[in-house]
Structures
1.
Amino acid sequence: MTLATAPMTDQEPPPSAAEPASEADRLARAALARLFEADDMAMGRLLDAYGSASATWAALLDTSSPLPPKVTESWRTAARVQQKEHPPERDLDAARRVGGRFVVPGDAEWPDDRLAPLALGAPSEPHVPIGLYLRGPLNLFEATRRAIAIVGTRASTDYGETVACDFATSLADHDWTIVSGLAYGVDGAAHKGAFAVGGSTIAVVATGFDVTYPAGHKHLLDRLVSDGLIVTEKPPGTGATRLRFLNRNRVIAALADATVVVEMDVRSGARNTLKHARRLRRPVMAVPGPIDSPTSLGCHLEIRRGDAVMVTSASEVAEVAGRIGEDLAAEPVVPPDPRDLLPTQALQLLDAFPAQRSADLDALVEASRLPREEVERLLPPLTQAGFVEPASGGHRLTEQGRA
Amino acid sequence: MTLATAPMTDQEPPPSAAEPASEADRLARAALARLFEADDMAMGRLLDAYGSASATWAALLDTSSPLPPKVTESWRTAARVQQKEHPPERDLDAARRVGGRFVVPGDAEWPDDRLAPLALGAPSEPHVPIGLYLRGPLNLFEATRRAIAIVGTRASTDYGETVACDFATSLADHDWTIVSGLAYGVDGAAHKGAFAVGGSTIAVVATGFDVTYPAGHKHLLDRLVSDGLIVTEKPPGTGATRLRFLNRNRVIAALADATVVVEMDVRSGARNTLKHARRLRRPVMAVPGPIDSPTSLGCHLEIRRGDAVMVTSASEVAEVAGRIGEDLAAEPVVPPDPRDLLPTQALQLLDAFPAQRSADLDALVEASRLPREEVERLLPPLTQAGFVEPASGGHRLTEQGRA
């Protein structure tokens, strides 16, 4: 959508992922990240009209620039107050002070292949993040080359937490980055599982990256700061709102090759994350559980509807998420019951043996009623397979043969 | 397969399901049921050659009749000994003495539509039962008009037994007959679940119907004799062999519209039952469970391979087993979170409210940065939906709005 009445003279070419961002663009993006929620339609309309972040921010501050329809003047007032009281340099400084950074399209760390698909077209659809605040030693671009999102309910059971932790441990051990949301329950278990093997894990949060939320995950936040990565669209100091959680979910889905939900009741916020993953045409997986467990109900519903692939092991997750030809899950090794391989007549011959004693050829032919040549033909392979053994007076069942 | 060298003069037309069985046919079938195991190739070759049970039995007893290739003379010896020492009348008498009966094709109680598909063509494939010994008040034909087989491992968990029992109870309550195998574990739980609501249940066993196997299920056997039905291919007094269990499984699958496995390790005999159900092109279902439970592993494998449909409730089982248009499973009722229905701007407006105080229109426009007319437009529906309420000085959040 372009705004025909907008002045085109101020426009600079929109920065592409290929060319480095200008300092003006970075500052404008920081300003917009503070002013707007990620999927605000007013921001979408302004960016569509002015074509770049810096032109948009300049137009908001310049009272002579027209605003697109449905963008209220109060945004202009708010922008001017923000520019005066909290210019974007302050957010970037605050980020730097705690060792964080603000990355934008064009930066080497910006995973454009992951995030660009969020620009789904309609202005009411979730937008590509205007920028991302990062905190932690992982490089976002590198860490998202192989990444799996593990999500689920905060009200998880021991089962769900064990599964989330085990999957994360095993996937991290196979060089997958674990993406989750730092919440209680499944999220926390996933991060911990990755750390258990010194793996890479990313928490996408709805607050500023310096806000401890939830409070009980302070230790996990500290660990992410020192060994992982915290990602957020909001500047330092920002609190959580419901809207920010919903917007955050789309970033989780976007940063990962695939998303797996471990436990989810039918109302869980994880449903929203899966919806975003499907919109992005990324694989969605769900873990089954006891059918009488409310926190598995949502997973079963996704599987039954064909909206999610059922996965029962980390290697299956990797197979679904992986590139074709890599990461193939081993089928569970089923040591075949040797009897499964026996033809009916061999089973019939085994049934003809006395339980404890030996039997000669005549007795076996008589008891099995198989042709004599059939009995003669079957005895050597049954002996070799360990079902019968030679004994005085013919053959007898081995322990395996009696089993 | 027909035997060109066989004498055709003795042949009578094979009894069809439509015409009543002759007494000679019934006696010959009883004799063959005692002499042969259900899927014995020698019996298959004899029946193919002589065309009817009575002609087959007569040919076995008459030393001047040629035997088909690969059918050993020892069958003839065994048949003559059996005819002398244990003529079929004795089995039919023994069955009647305990209140049982022997039904054959052509009898009103013979469920030909269920069993005839077992004649799959190749002589090495499982055959249609030569006859069935029945004991119990249920009518086999009537009881198999709507029938579901519930099968699984003997080494079931509490979870599996609860599921098997609950499914059987609910299905029996909706006029489905439960078919299973009287074994410990899932089988026993299924029969008990059906009895819990006075439902119909059929046990297909590998022994004679007067043999208590397994010993711990004597009470269940007694209950089936008085209120259900025991079905077997073998005459009274017959013990169990491995081969008979395998043959029994095909009858379980054949008598039911569909088969559901509740718990199964990767080696469970229930796999064999599912294989028969698939051969018969009857729906196969599996119940998920905890991914770390070995007795759910086999179920998950069937689902993952696409060999079984995942089911998580009795109504889903009925839907899969049911005739089109009947027995539709209700989707789990998900009471929608009212917020799920709100557009982004409404969420934005709710986020703009102070937590406890009321706010007037100006404050809301300022805080939400939505156009004034948008705020005015959104307040009435948000009030009606119970998120906000009028208060002195404007509107404030309700408890639901703060949630």
2.
Amino acid sequence: VEERASSDNLSVSQPPFSSDFIAELVKLLGQSHVLTERFDCQAYDSDWTKIPGDAHLVARPGSTAEVSQVLALCSRYQVAVVPSGGRTGLAGGATVKKGQLALSLNRLNRLGEVDRIGRTITVQAGVTVESVHQKAKEFSLTWPIDLASKGTATIGGNLSTNAGGVRVIRYGMTRKWVTAIEAVLMSGEIIRLNDGLEKNNTGYDLLQLLIGAEGTLAVVTEATLKLTKRSTNSQVFFFHVPSLEKLNDLLTHAWAGPFQINAFEFLSQDCLKLVQRNLKRGNNVETDSPFYVLMEVEPFQDDLTTWMEATFEKGYATNGAHGQSPEQQKELWSIREGITESIAQVGPVVKYDVAVPVKSIAEFLNSVRTQYQKTPRQFDLYLFGHYGDGSPHLNLVKQSSASQEAFEASISTFEKELFPLLKQFKGSASSEHGVGVAKKHWVKFSRTPTEMNLFAMIKRSFDPKGLLNPGKIIDLA
Amino acid sequence: VEERASSDNLSVSQPPFSSDFIAELVKLLGQSHVLTERFDCQAYDSDWTKIPGDAHLVARPGSTAEVSQVLALCSRYQVAVVPSGGRTGLAGGATVKKGQLALSLNRLNRLGEVDRIGRTITVQAGVTVESVHQKAKEFSLTWPIDLASKGTATIGGNLSTNAGGVRVIRYGMTRKWVTAIEAVLMSGEIIRLNDGLEKNNTGYDLLQLLIGAEGTLAVVTEATLKLTKRSTNSQVFFFHVPSLEKLNDLLTHAWAGPFQINAFEFLSQDCLKLVQRNLKRGNNVETDSPFYVLMEVEPFQDDLTTWMEATFEKGYATNGAHGQSPEQQKELWSIREGITESIAQVGPVVKYDVAVPVKSIAEFLNSVRTQYQKTPRQFDLYLFGHYGDGSPHLNLVKQSSASQEAFEASISTFEKELFPLLKQFKGSASSEHGVGVAKKHWVKFSRTPTEMNLFAMIKRSFDPKGLLNPGKIIDLA
């Protein structure tokens, strides 16, 4: 009897999904588009953060109508849903817990024609960023959101995280380059926002609200993206900059230059040394300077000599390279782009994707360095990122001599100083990657209780039962 | 006794504001910043629509803290509040009903310094758009939102209506040029959103939600505006275009030209004739063409001859003028800018500020003209506006022979066809001016019941008692 009861308990105790629910899901999508084996599901567990997930059921709808039917079904059965795109996120926004359905948008991969009058393209959520770039390029156009993960990152995910990238200083974030969104609410209702309109001032901008909502308000199924002319005559500078203060001077000087700034990225001497050592790139660059800037510009005139001479005369840079050919430019970019990879080769790393007002970035970074140097640490500090956007990446890499425990304790101490400092500088705990589950703890340093309360009310307006990507951005009371 | 009762009734019957409330308001702001005489208040009744208002009490706080105190007071006394800026709106968003407090933001007129590193300026809500332009110009910068009302329109109003203007095709709407908003909720709580951050992906974008909310969610008290380089080498073309189809061809051809397009505005032959007759402008332009385009560009190279020759060879334009000097450019712009004034001289006019996807504008305008010509009308149809944004202005001007009643009946019939047509083209009932009270009736042609329901829930999240600018955009059930 004892054994029987125990066995009964096991068979009824919280099966993750009821057989009725799975049967209805299979009826909707067909057996081949419902994954039920753990082996097949585990690819959907998480994103690039590798925060552990435990997916046991994956639905792969093939149309917006099917997404709608799946969400309505989940609402009926009270099953939580995690939208899943390319899973290149860096905040755990796509992490699936046991009992949550992973909703893959990958079969929504229709890439529309380029509209040459309105300069837009309409694509489904599962299309990759790179596919959009390739299609637009045929018309000498581009969608100017450019990031390392573009071959895998999908449009649905890009919109849901309001992705940035290396050319934000010129073009801004994803939200500036979207003129329509089709999305499905948890109820199964389909909403089509703006429908490709450049202008629509009829009430609250729900389109902007869905961008950056990390799939917690609605599931993006399709979007119309705004395109722009491709930059074809860019030039790249790689400057040696003697201090953070001179970095500010250089940026101000660059704003006044005879060009548009496409990118203004910085790296510390330590980053350069790592890239040279681990990737054998940029080895002809002298490691004599505390900071370096990679600046890509689109000139208004052919000759930038006068501007460049002034840069050195005024002491904003002590040395520099000027890449005019595509090959030279690619080589200079490869230094900047190699930083993450070269850091990964060293050891465990903790990354902070923060932002402060651009005018404060030098002062903020100086404060971070002072704080770092104040007490003995079990990690090395690497500084690089989007200087011109006020968006540095702080990478804390475990020292080889330190134990994992000592490293983590050291990080924990450092964070207790870092986030109050960030708050003091009116910064953001997540400049680009979003909150997901990874940064929920830090949001309070960037957002007030009043704002968090508004978040919760907005969340409930869209998803009263709290079934859509629950536990991401906020925990509902 | 009869008389006594009557007199009592009068004295107690719904005084718009209790004397306690007024006393507390005066205590907060001082007598000189609380207007109680109808004569002083009437300027705050309405906006440029002249929709009748009836303001009997105006509060003029001098700081964000005072705005907060006034709103908290109004919440306590359940007094409805209408934020009031330059009142240049075109949808009745600032119209004050009896019993509503007009909250003037005009004393919040602090104009901050230009931040040359971050390229921003922080200003209070009551600062005019023109003041921002003048200040930015000292640094060869601009805030690229440019509209006819800029001398009077305030930043608070511009943000609250997500204003557009003549250079949207180049720069986009107001919402792309704001990096921080300080606002006060109806509860009196002050929220500071983004604080000048270029990037902040920590939760729902409340800043974007407040832009275009027409003062129904919170009162904007301060903003940080993003600035950009002033266009200094622009050139203007004024083309004669033989048809709407050729207008599309011309736009596509222009996108591929060796320049950036700053403005792509169109007008019909009738508009040109009116400007020539009523304002004596553009009289050297031949009235031989059904449509004209004013295009302002910022060239990548000095010589645009090749591009211009192709324009005529391919038949996209039959004639044209090319303004290179500032004087010539000003003269060409004065034609476009004179249309509204010259129409106003003719007689009563009804204006529709609609939008359709850019690729559909020619077809939409053709359909509107067909519909107009189908049955006898009591008005003349004038077409002009922001062609390159898919945002035409339809102006219906009373024929001198028609009675006002016949004109209005004729308009009413026309509208019953126009808005379903707009819906069919997936258009917007308000491209730029907002909804206010004037366009509430038409929103249903651009927004679904699901969207309107979300609006209502968002409104309640911010303003549960419905006291902030009530009756604008939506009526709460």
